[in-house]
Task: inverse folding
């Protein structure tokens, strides 16, 4: 069933309740968390500025944020300084990316304008998107573009990053007869089969691998990963991981996090991931931000809990975490 298999021992501390259990892996690329809440009618008021001044908006503090799509993680983000108390900001700043030109030809430049209010909240004002494949690199003139509302895909939270095919099963304590077949505590088996339609960050494809943690534990004891599959946006991993030390009650408070990364010499780029759990927002009575499973992920985890010793197959979309 697999050409590589990992098995590690994992023990939950069910009695020690510490805020540290909400911590994340240190090499996790952080996705932008800038607020996107808009005031009602804001875009309508923006259009009105072109016809006449509206004095109450003269207190705007604006900045510009850029992304090289499809990479919306930390490595692709840049932003200007904030220009306060003006509706006609002048930035005169250069935002630099160190990237091969061939890679640029398969990417888009997204520029968005934001208002930063005195309370630190950020409101979306408008954006443009430029296809770099058709950009005239000999152009040295200034170009003006009208700001547009957020794209329909961004408003609806559509963020296609590929889909992962996997199977998972739970082996309860004492369910397999006498030792050595009978584990002293329960086990969770995770079979990562393949991923399809990964983001193509380079013309040659991506060199991808999958990381796995069982949260709240982000230590080396919990960390497992697959081998790297090179130059393929549809990698086949066929990798099985086994975590023991799982008591039945732990299934309500734990979360299996699987993330896909593009491997490079200096750094790894986050491509997408899934979190399998009940999505309650709580772990052992403490509020945590990683217990945020989608409806599909929750249903997949619940099916595993109800079908002991049976492989549950699933096809789950990767998402930003």
Result:
């Amino acid at each position: 069933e697999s050409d590589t298999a990992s098995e590690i021992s994992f023990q939950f501390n069910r009695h020690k309740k510490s805020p540290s259990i909400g911590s994340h892996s240190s090499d996790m690329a952080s996705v932008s968390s800038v607020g996107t809440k808009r005031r009602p009618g804001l875009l309508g008021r923006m259009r009105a500025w072109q016809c006449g001044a509206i004095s109450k908006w003269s207190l705007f503090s604006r900045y510009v944020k850029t992304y090289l799509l499809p990479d919306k993680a930390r490595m692709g983000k840049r932003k200007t300084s904030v220009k306060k108390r003006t509706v006609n900001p002048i930035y005169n700043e250069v935002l630099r990316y160190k990237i091969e030109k061939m890679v640029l030809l398969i990417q888009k430049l997204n520029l968005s304008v934001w208002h930063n209010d005195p309370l630190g909240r950020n409101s979306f004002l408008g954006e443009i998107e430029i296809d770099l494949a058709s950009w005239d690199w000999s152009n040295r003139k200034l170009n003006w573009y009208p700001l547009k509302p957020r794209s329909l895909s961004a408003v609806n939270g559509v963020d296609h990053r590929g889909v992962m095919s996997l199977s998972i099963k739970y082996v309860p304590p004492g369910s397999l007869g006498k030792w050595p077949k009978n584990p002293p505590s329960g086990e969770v088996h995770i079979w990562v089969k393949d991923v399809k339609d990964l983001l193509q960050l380079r013309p040659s494809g991506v060199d991808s691998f999958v990381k796995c943690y069982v949260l709240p534990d982000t230590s080396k004891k919990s960390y497992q990963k697959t081998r790297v599959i090179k130059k393929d946006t549809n990698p086949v991993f066929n990798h099985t991981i086994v975590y023991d030390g799982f008591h039945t009650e732990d299934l309500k408070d734990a979360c299996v996090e699987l993330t896909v990364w593009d491997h490079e010499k200096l750094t790894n780029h986050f491509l997408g991931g899934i979190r399998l759990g009940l999505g309650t927002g709580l772990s052992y009575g403490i509020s945590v931000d990683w217990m945020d499973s989608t409806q599909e992920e929750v249903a997949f985890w619940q099916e595993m809990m109800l079908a002991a010793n049976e492989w549950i197959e699933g096809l789950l979309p990767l998402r930003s975490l």
